[in-house]
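Example 9 (inverse folding). The structure is encoded as follows.
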């Protein structure tokens, strides 16, 4: 099969639509279930590149959750703590600790559940039964992986009344060195971005503090590879083997940092005792519980804990989580990594990152104000490495 006819393109009026191989060779994918669309395949092929590269860089099984051609998160297959399991809504999944690929997806999906609603999933390794049990109960458009266990495939084929999109990709497929796309009837051509992101890339440490532990090295690699497949401008916060906040597609870099920082803060606050102890109305479904948590952590908490409404959401009325309490909780966080796909033009990005517990920074460098950014890092005893390589993705 060297082409696949699609129902339509990005929008229903964009017909005809297909994916195909210009060189006449077979497509490197097999559609095991469903009928993916144009945007599904954009997410599938971008997300597969991310997890394939992340697996090669870390040697660990990994997963990503994609929405509209950008990752909401990416993660390696580290075990989850009991608190993180509950925060990611997977504390009831049996055998999770024995499945690295399931742990990776649980982390990726659980990071920013609001953005991941209706996601596309990419797995670096075979989808096993445990991972399929997580996927099957989430609102999702499809999954791409190099293989599926028989039981996992059976589970996934029954999702969405048998229409769930399941794509198998040849893990040995290597695309051509040049890539093209048409815009307004004009063809663009460029070399593929085959730039390798690895530990050696982090050797140019420009701050007074040069101590980067192995855990931070992994987080830096995760953040950089995540950015490589995120619509630019983009910034990524990472911690404990996963991206915890992605700010994508903003025109201003400080807006990227603020957006990613807000998501990272929410991820951390979800693990607080106040959130962990929330007692929901048993009739409230998982997506609604997730939305309620986000509102509870916002400045609009009265919308879910107010006198007239709290019983709709909770069995026991929660105490407010005050701004001062949230600020104090976040102030205890440390060891978080911040990465950027292009240089930080001003030190305000570092000032914002500090509020979210950032200790390690990695970016290309090359701004006329690099000295001010370095000084800001030194003022807060942060460690910053320059990679010398921009990672724009459009």
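The amino acid assigned to each position is listed next.
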């Amino acid at each position: 099969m060297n082409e696949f006819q699609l129902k339509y393109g990005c929008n229903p009026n964009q017909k005809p639509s297909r994916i195909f191989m210009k060189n006449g060779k077979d497509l490197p994918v097999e559609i095991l279930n469903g009928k993916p669309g144009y945007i599904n395949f954009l997410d599938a092929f971008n997300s597969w590149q991310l997890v394939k590269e992340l697996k090669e860089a870390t040697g660990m099984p990994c997963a990503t959750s994609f929405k509209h051609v950008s990752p909401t998160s990416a993660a390696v297959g580290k075990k989850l703590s009991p608190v993180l399991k509950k925060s990611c809504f997977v504390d009831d999944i049996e055998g999770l600790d024995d499945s690295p690929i399931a742990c990776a997806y649980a982390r990726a999906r659980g990071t920013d559940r609001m953005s991941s609603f209706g996601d596309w999933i990419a797995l670096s390794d075979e989808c096993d039964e445990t991972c399929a049990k997580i996927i099957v109960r989430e609102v999702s458009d499809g999954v791409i992986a190099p293989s599926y266990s028989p039981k996992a495939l059976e589970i996934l084929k029954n999702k969405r009344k048998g229409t769930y999109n399941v794509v198998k990709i040849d893990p040995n497929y290597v695309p051509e060195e040049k890539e093209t796309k048409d815009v307004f009837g004009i063809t663009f051509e460029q070399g593929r971005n085959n730039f390798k992101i690895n530990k050696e890339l982090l050797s140019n440490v420009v701050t007074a503090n040069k101590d980067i532990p192995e855990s931070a090295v992994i987080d830096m690699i995760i953040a950089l590879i995540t950015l490589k497949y995120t619509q630019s401008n983009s910034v990524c916060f990472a911690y404990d083997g996963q991206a915890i906040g992605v700010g994508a597609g903003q025109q201003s870099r400080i807006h990227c940092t603020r957006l990613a920082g807000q998501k990272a803060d929410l991820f951390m606050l979800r693990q607080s005792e106040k959130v962990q102890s929330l007692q929901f109305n048993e009739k409230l479904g998982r997506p609604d519980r997730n939305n309620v948590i986000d509102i509870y952590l916002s400045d609009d908490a009265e919308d879910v804990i107010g006198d007239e409404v709290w019983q709709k959401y909770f069995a026991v009325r929660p105490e407010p989580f005050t701004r001062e309490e949230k600020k104090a909780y976040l102030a205890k966080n440390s060891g978080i990594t911040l990465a950027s796909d292009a240089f930080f033009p001003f030190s305000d990005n570092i000032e914002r990152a500090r509020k979210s517990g950032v200790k390690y920074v990695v970016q290309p460098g090359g701004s006329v104000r690099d000295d001010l950014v370095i000084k800001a890092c030194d003022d807060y005893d942060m460690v910053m490495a320059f990679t010398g390589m921009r990672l724009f993705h459009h």
